[in-house]
């Protein structure tokens, strides 16, 4: 009901703005003022919405009456920066519509870049990346260096988000070199992001140097907008150096400014690392009060990232130690919800997250606690059921073992008859096109896929659809559809099958590899975990790795 109300309210406001534009008349006192004058008045009247609205409308009406595409786009951008979240994308689309009519590559690229930035602020990173790539296609056709580096900066933020820290570091360094002489705020932003990357790769010394440099440079440039962010970043960095008191002091100092900017993401990160510091200082009660603040932001904003997942593990652990099953259950359910979001948004990072409570265990704990709270004791029934289940399981395992031996041997013989060429994935005829994708694009992607397979790039660890799209200068939807159509597989299956087929060839040809453990084999062909490797091998070969190697040794 509330969502419907907000939606109707946003429509009403949008209609009101449109109606005002139609009937609006620029006051005589500012009719002949230029765009710079109106823009300065917009900035100066941030605390007077009535006056600001007058200048916003005057700016846009003047641009439309003069049919000045660049200034019309700037007019919508003025609205975008000062509008509520539910209208920002509306103004971004108006910018794109106007820019496309102008056929100006720089203007179109800049408009798509603005839309990507809106998505990034909303933490919709896949949509942000799609718009950044479109922006790059247009901007790369221009000589506008500022826009070129602005795209680089935003692509670097996506790479940081994806966990490609080394690539992000390289891009941020380029941005620092350009923005140092051309844009003070972008220069300081790039320094801040570079420091975050250094922290993530474990180079805490360089992170400290970068944060200190950021504060000094901000002073030199008389720009203190990023000062609190450098202090916040250093607070987090000091946690990893074991200086918990310094962490608490620095982050606590920076939080008022971050809250004022409504930066809920960095606010949540700050609360978490203050809580972690108190936790490691053996002050769990203090820690829990901050962990609850992180949970409050998760409730209100839905914001979570991989390192914040531990927030719920620690809350569960705390209330388990306090013998409080109600709150233990409550935070288990919260962790399950967080995991569902992380699995969707952070598929590329899921293998790197150490999960003290995996989903299966959480569901088991949840069920046990619910049984305790409901006082349902079916011990005799459970015991009997377990005995029956174990007996049937033994019978089933005996049957499956006998059957599998026969099936595995048949499949092993088939694999041994295959040549290297036979193990490669077959492609469909390129003539069978995909209706909603340009055939030149399809052909280009297929050519890149062939090179990708030939050069064995599929062996790269933690490779994802998003990362492949970035490498191909395409987008995830195109890559996914083309692989599905021409390789007849989902992306994950396509990647796994390439790895397994390559490994089967290695095991046939290299006798030494037959002595490797599953973990070593998984690492050899780029699987992020032993379990994922074992599952993928069984799916492709229709037998366990151990059986295949055992039969190879017998043949040997």
UniProtKB/TrEMBL annotation:
Q: Which UniProt keywords apply?
A: DNA-binding, Membrane, Transmembrane, Transmembrane helix
Q: Which domain of life is it from?
A: Bacteria
Tagged with keyword Transcription regulation: no
Residue ranges spanning the membrane: these are 381-399
Q: What InterPro entries does the record point to?
A: HTH_AraC, TPR-like_helical_dom_sf, TPR_rpt
Which part of the chain is the HTH araC/xylS-type domain?
459-551
Q: DNA-binding: present as a keyword of the record? A: yes
Tell me which SUPFAM superfamilies the record gives: TPR-like
Its protein name is AraC-type DNA-binding protein
Which molecular-function annotations from GO does this UniProt entry contain? DNA-binding transcription factor activity; sequence-specific DNA binding
């Amino acid at each position: 009901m509330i969502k419907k109300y907000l939606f109707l309210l946003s429509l009403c406001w949008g209609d009101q703005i449109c109606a005002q534009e139609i009937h609006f008349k620029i006051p005589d006192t500012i009719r002949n003022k230029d765009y710079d004058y109106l823009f300065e008045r917009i900035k100066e009247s941030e605390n007077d919405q009535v006056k600001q609205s007058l200048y916003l409308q005057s700016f846009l009406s003047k641009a439309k009456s003069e049919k000045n595409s660049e200034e019309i786009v700037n007019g919508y951008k003025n609205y975008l920066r000062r509008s509520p979240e539910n209208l920002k994308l509306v103004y971004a689309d108006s910018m794109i519509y106007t820019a496309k009519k102008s056929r100006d590559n720089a203007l179109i690229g800049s408009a798509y870049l603005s839309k990507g930035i809106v998505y990034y602020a909303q933490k919709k990173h896949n949509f942000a990346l799609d718009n950044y790539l479109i922006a790059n296609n247009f901007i790369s056709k221009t000589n506008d260096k500022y826009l070129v580096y602005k795209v680089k900066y935003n692509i670097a933020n996506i790479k940081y988000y994806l966990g490609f820290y080394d690539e992000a570091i390289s891009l941020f360094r380029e941005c620092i070199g350009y923005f140092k002489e051309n844009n003070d705020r972008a220069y300081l932003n790039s320094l801040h992001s570079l420091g975050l990357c250094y922290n993530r790769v474990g180079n805490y010394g360089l992170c400290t140097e970068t944060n200190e440099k950021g504060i000094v440079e901000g002073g030199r440039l008389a720009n203190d907008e990023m000062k609190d962010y450098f202090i916040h970043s250093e607070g987090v960095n000091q946690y990893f150096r074991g200086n918990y008191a310094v962490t608490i002091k620095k982050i606590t100092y920076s939080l008022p400014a971050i809250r004022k900017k409504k930066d809920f993401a960095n606010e949540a990160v700050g609360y978490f690392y203050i809580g972690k510091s108190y936790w490691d200082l053996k002050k769990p009660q203090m820690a829990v009060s901050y962990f609850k603040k992180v949970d409050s932001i998760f409730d209100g904003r839905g914001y979570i990232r991989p390192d914040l997942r531990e927030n719920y593990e620690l809350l569960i652990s705390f209330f388990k130690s306090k013998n409080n099953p109600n709150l233990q259950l409550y935070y288990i359910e919260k962790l399950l919800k967080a995991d569902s979001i992380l699995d969707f948004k952070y598929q590329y990072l899921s293998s790197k997250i150490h999960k003290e409570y995996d989903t299966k265990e959480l569901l088991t704990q949840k069920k046990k606690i619910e049984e305790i709270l409901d006082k349902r004791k079916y011990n005799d029934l459970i015991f009997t059921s377990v005995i029956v289940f174990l007996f049937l399981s033994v019978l089933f395992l005996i049957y499956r073992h006998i059957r599998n031996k026969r099936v595995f041997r048949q499949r092993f013989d088939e694999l041994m008859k295959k040549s290297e060429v036979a193990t490669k994935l077959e492609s469909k005829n390129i003539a069978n096109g995909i209706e909603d994708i340009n055939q030149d694009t399809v052909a280009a992607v297929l050519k890149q896929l062939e090179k990708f397979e030939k050069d064995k790039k599929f062996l790269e660890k933690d490779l994802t659809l998003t990362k492949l799209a970035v490498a191909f200068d395409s987008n995830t939807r195109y890559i996914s559809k083309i692989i599905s159509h021409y390789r007849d597989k989902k992306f994950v299956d396509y990647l796994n099958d390439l790895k397994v087929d390559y490994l089967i060839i290695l095991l046939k040809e290299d006798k030494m590899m037959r002595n490797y453990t599953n973990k070593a084999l998984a690492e050899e062909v780029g699987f992020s975990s032993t379990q994922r490797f074992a599952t993928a091998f069984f799916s492709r070969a229709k037998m366990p790795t151990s059986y295949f190697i055992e039969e190879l040794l017998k043949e040997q």
